[in-house]
Amino acid sequence: MLRIAEFCSFLDRVGVVQLAEIDGPFVTLRLSGRFWHTRSMVLARVANYLQKRIPEIVEVQIEDESQLDDSAANF
To answer: Which SUPFAM superfamilies does the record associate with it (predicted)?
Structure first.
């Protein structure tokens, strides 16, 4: 059985992916919060998802490279 304290620790991992900019076939994303996976993995998976659904997208990039830093100071 999942205890309340364990469940609340799950809620600590709530990352947000936002669309920062679209410039023709180039998409820029913004990452914030904590993710279950590394931020680079999240970016790769979101990029794959977008490119499969919108084949015209040539490149998906991050708004700022510092958003790929998984250290606790970033949250």
So the answer is: Fe-S cluster assembly (FSCA) domain-like (SSF117916)
